[in-house]
């Protein structure tokens, strides 16, 4: 649902506010309908990827299906006094007055993010604008799901980041003239509240092809835009074509995101490795200084007092005395040997890194080039690039026996201490899951979840593998601990396969292999 469509619904609703609420109904687990006196049902469907809001005269029923809907029915009460939209973004808030009674309910805000795959419905404490404490969220967004933004009950709501676009409701002729050279299909990039569907409808009403710029016909395009503000409906033909284009755009966005993340990680890694080369090169000066001081100490060792913390030694070029700091616990010769060893280490590090520098710079240039291609790439080009990167991926590690969880995650089970250590400390990533039978020697079990949370069937499947590959094999009610790899570490000096871990949870399973 696009911004202008949402604005039209809220504009029609605002003409009836304040309105008395007559109760909530819940037709399904992701739909809430608020009956408003004299208006009808305000239907809020928050199922991704196509959330919608509309007013319906149809009689709707249904009890709450989940804790969020029960909270909504019990706590979001009183008259609906205000509806406001964040610019023409796909975010709006409904303000409720609260009510007095046997149990008083304070005023609240119901905030709806009508944002495709990120759709969410949240109850906020009373206030103005679009920030405030979250009292309850339909979808909890954690750092494992979205590393840029979290939405948690009890946390503070942060609206989407601000942006600068032209408001079509107040667009002037001068502003419209600045868009004359831009293809009508791309006006949505500069004009607020317009997405793929309304962008296609704008082109149809303006009598232009989507890739055609209005030019001198910009007044015609402006008139079409103003008509779209008044009536943001879409013709059937545009709807069908726009739906296909939206599906293509969504697929392209997903591919672009999936391709960008590993490239950006690789770019960061290579950049850091080149920075290591630069630091090692800078260390050559320190190595030269160490060697010069070591030479002086070897030449004048007989003049250095035992236990001295420093000495002043004549420079070889006759330029004067050179101050040299010393370790009082070492002799002059030992101080010199310490400097020689330190200089050799710095020189060896630089030589080793310098050998890799040309390959690293070539890899850096390639990664930057691929990142630059992503933004302008078409869907077909993105698919081809995805296939290329897939073919370039190294083969999976030969370590461990392989299984697959009910949800399709790869599971690796160590067959000995060496494989246990390899799975846990080399192959496993920080947010992968690690399982081990509690209190029994046995295999380390690694679930390569890619940072995603595991469903209960996946947890029980991996836990049975851990129990079956331990000394508790064949027993019943075996306790199995599991945690993220980042909470597992090897104690200093411990043999391979021995670990400590924290933040674990425990499940009890049979010590037999899971079916399938």
TrEMBL record:
GO cellular component, one term: RQC complex
Pfam (any one): NFACT-R_1
Coiled-coil ranges per UniProt: 333-377
InterPro entries: NFACT_RNA-bd, RQC_Subunit_NEMF
Record-annotated NFACT RNA-binding domain positions: 403-493
GO MF term set: ribosomal large subunit binding; tRNA binding
Keywords: Coiled coil
Protein's name according to its UniProt entry: Fibronectin-binding A-like protein
Organism in which the protein naturally occurs: Deinococcus aerius
């Amino acid at each position: 649902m696009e911004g202008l469509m949402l604005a039209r619904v809220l504009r029609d609703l605002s003409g009836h506010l304040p309105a008395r609420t007559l109760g909530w109904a819940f037709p399904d687990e992701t739909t809430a309908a608020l009956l408003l006196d004299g208006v009808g049902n305000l239907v809020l469907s928050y199922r991704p990827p196509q959330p919608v809001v509309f007013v319906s005269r149809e009689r709707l029923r249904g009890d709450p299906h989940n804790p969020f809907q029960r909270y909504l029915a019990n706590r979001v009460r009183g008259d609906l006094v205000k509806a406001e939209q964040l610019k023409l973004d796909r975010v709006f808030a409904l303000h409720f007055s609260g009510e007095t009674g046997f149990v008083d309910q304070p005023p609240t805000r119901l905030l709806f993010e009508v944002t495709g795959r990120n759709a969410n419905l949240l109850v906020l404490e009373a206030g103005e604008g679009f920030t405030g404490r979250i009292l309850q969220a339909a979808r909890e967004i954690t750092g494992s799901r979205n590393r840029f933004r979290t939405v948690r009950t009890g946390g503070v709501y942060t609206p989407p980041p601000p942006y600068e676009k032209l408001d079509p409701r107040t667009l002037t002729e001068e502003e419209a003239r600045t868009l004359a050279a831009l293809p009508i299909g791309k006006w949505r990039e500069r004009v607020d509240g317009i997405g793929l569907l309304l962008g296609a409808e704008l082109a149809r009403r303006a009598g232009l092809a989507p890739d055609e710029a209005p030019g001198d016909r910009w007044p015609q395009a402006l008139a079409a835009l103003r008509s779209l503000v008044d009536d943001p409906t879409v013709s059937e033909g545009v709807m069908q074509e726009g739906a296909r284009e939206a599906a293509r755009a969504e697929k392209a966005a997903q591919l672009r995101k999936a391709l960008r993340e590993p490239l950006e990680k690789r770019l960061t890694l290579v950049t850091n490795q080149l920075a290591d080369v630069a630091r090692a090169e800078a260390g050559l000066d320190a190595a030269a200084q160490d060697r010069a001081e070591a030479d002086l100490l070897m030449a004048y060792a007989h003049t250095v007092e035992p236990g001295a913390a420093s000495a002043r030694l004549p420079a070889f070029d006759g330029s004067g005395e050179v101050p040299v700091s010393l370790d009082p616990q070492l002799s002059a010769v030992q101080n010199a040997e310490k400097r020689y060893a330190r200089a050799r280490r710095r020189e060896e590090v630089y030589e080793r890194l310098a050998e890799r520098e040309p390959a690293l710079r070539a890899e850096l240039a390639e990664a930057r080039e691929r990142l630059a291609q992503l933004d302008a790439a078409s869907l077909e080009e993105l698919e081809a690039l995805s296939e290329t990167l897939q073919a370039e991926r190294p083969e999976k590690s030969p370590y461990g026996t392989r299984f697959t969880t009910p949800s399709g995650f790869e599971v690796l089970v160590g067959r000995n201490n060496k494989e246990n250590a390899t799975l846990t400390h080399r192959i496993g990533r920080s947010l992968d899951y690690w399982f081990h039978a509690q209190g029994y020697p046995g295999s380390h079990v690694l679930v390569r979840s890619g940072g995603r949370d595991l469903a209960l069937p996946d947890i029980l499947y991996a836990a049975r593998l851990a129990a079956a590959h331990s000394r508790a094999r064949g027993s019943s009610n075996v306790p199995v601990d599991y945690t993220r790899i980042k909470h597992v570490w090897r104690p200093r000096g411990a043999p391979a396969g021995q670990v400590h871990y924290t933040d674990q949870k425990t499940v009890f399973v049979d010590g037999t292999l899971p079916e399938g």
